[in-house]
Specification:
Strand content: 5-15%
Order of helices and strands: HHEE
Largest sheet: 2 strands, antiparallel
Shape: extended
Radius of gyration: 14 Å
């Protein structure tokens, strides 16, 4: 498996921020992606709410 440079950087930042191993960061990311994709397939929307209450729809491409 080959990761593109932005992904390598994101994994490095997450391992530093969380103290998790690279494998743990990647495992969690894949599990979250699988969950979000399953929700999307069921017609759910993925939304983020900012501290002021505004909603933003998340599009995963």
């Amino acid at each position: 498996m080959t990761l593109v440079p932005p992904t390598v950087q994101a994994v490095a930042e997450l391992t530093e921020a969380t103290g998790l191993s690279k494998a743990d960061v990647i495992n969690r990311a894949v599990q979250i992606y699988a969950y979000l994709e399953a929700q999307r397939a069921q017609g759910q929307e993925i939304l983020l709410r900012d501290p002021q209450g505004a909603l933003e729809r998340v599009h995963i491409v």
